[in-house]
Design a protein that fits this description.
Blueprint lengths: L1 E3 L2 E3 L3 E3 L8 H9 L5 E2 L3 E2 H6 L19 E6 L6 H11 L3 E6 L4 H5 L10 H14 L6 E6 L6 H16 L4 E5 L13 H10 L5 E4 L5 H11 L3 E4 L9 H9 L10 H18 L2 H15 L6 H9 L4 H11 L26
Parallel strand pairs: 3-11, 4-6, 5-6, 6-7, 7-8, 8-9, 9-10, 10-11
Antiparallel strand pairs: 1-2
Helix pairs in contact: 1-10, 3-5, 5-6, 8-9, 10-11, 11-12
Length: 351
């Protein structure tokens, strides 16, 4: 059981915010396949405040009845711009406001956002307090952090100053990625640091992040570090089965068989249909193509299927992939290199 504020989640494995990926369709398919909680892709405060009621942008604030609880992740540079954006996200129906102090993308750091705040505790804590004071008391405020800007003692001290101050300010949970900001996505995630945090902050809700590419990784982090929960990020792209697989392992069961080709087809097509509910046909094809390339990892002819998805630009080509590669119900395979996907880059709506 994982608890974030008033929300008691049946599984301590949740879907993380992913720029360019964790839109409503990805969150919807994750919930359908067992995710107890999902977080939308990160949005800049000024972007949220400037959003108009338009058909082509409505998906950014979309929350449906099946989503709850759903988190909205917010990022920005100026503390005073956070409260209005946080309130708008709550009004849209999001249940939790997650503040991003972890993004390591150069474009984000250059604009004093994301992981940049780990080097200025005073500003970071002012943001936390502004958001906590602005949203209703029953709405949990959470943080996403990395273990520091770099490996210096100063950075380490600043991390703990923010972490301790955030809990004192009423933050319900903190997700910590085991890499530094300067590491970006290179090198191993330091799970030993997560274990230390849990020991120093007993009774606090700490979620772990970093190098969680499959269900076994999620369970291993839970057991080795003592975190309250884990957030599946890159490991959940094209892999919504990670949640039910982790649940099986935590229940003492064997790892389930990989989904068959027809089971994969059913999930991919459901994901695509969710995309058509919020995007134009052209946009849905473009968005789902990158998921298709990851879903292909489960297919026994993964390299050929991935190559076929890469070429897709139109709906007819999308359907052709299924005619060519998903007609026969063959046994699925577990991805051979689950730790290799590149990190998602910051997306266009992060101005």
């Amino acid at each position: 059981m994982l608890q974030i504020g008033p929300y008691k989640l049946h599984l301590p494995v949740v879907q993380a915010a992913l720029s360019g990926y964790s839109d409503w369709p990805m969150r919807a398919i994750a919930r359908r396949l067992g995710a107890p909680y999902t977080i939308c892709e990160v949005m800049v405060d000024s972007f949220v405040n400037s959003l108009k009621e338009r058909e082509r942008t409505r998906h950014f604030l979309l929350v449906t009845e099946d989503d709850h609880p759903a988190g909205a992740q917010l990022m920005g540079a100026v503390p005073d711009e956070f409260p209005a954006a946080a309130c708008r996200l709550v009004d849209a129906g999001f249940d939790v406001i997650d503040i991003n102090f972890g993004c390591p993308v150069k474009k984000v750091l250059g604009r004093c956002r994301g992981g940049f705040h780990l080097g200025q505790p005073d500003v970071a804590l002012k943001i936390v307090k502004c958001v906590r004071d602005a949203v209703p008391a029953e709405v949990p405020v959470t943080l996403k952090m990395r273990r520091g800007v770099d490996d210096t003692q100063q950075s380490r001290d600043q991390f703990f100053e923010i972490l301790s101050g955030a809990f004192d300010a009423g933050v319900a949970a903190v997700t910590v990625h085991g890499r530094t900001v300067m590491q970006r996505y290179d090198g191993p995630s330091d799970w030993g640091f997560l274990k230390q945090i849990c020991a120093e902050f007993p009774g606090r809700t700490i979620l772990g992040s970093g190098d969680l590419f499959c269900a076994e990784d999620c369970v291993r982090m839970l057991r080795e570090t003592g975190v309250s929960g884990v957030t599946a990020a890159r490991g959940a792209i094209g892999n919504p089965w990670i949640f039910s697989q982790a649940q099986a392992l935590l229940a003492g069961e064997s790892l389930p068989a990989a989904p068959t080709v027809w089971q994969q087809k059913e999930v991919i097509q459901a994901h695509f249909n969710f995309g058509l509910q919020v995007y134009s046909e052209k946009r849905a094809v473009k968005q789902l193509r990158k998921f298709g390339m990851r879903y292909a990892d489960w297919h026994p002819a993964s390299e050929h299927v991935r190559a076929a998805f890469i070429k897709v630009t139109r709906l007819a080509e999308w359907n052709q992939v299924f005619s060519d590669w998903y007609a026969d119900d063959l046994p699925g395979v577990y991805p051979r290199n689950p730790g290799l996907p590149k990190a998602p880059a910051a997306t266009a709506f992060l101005p």
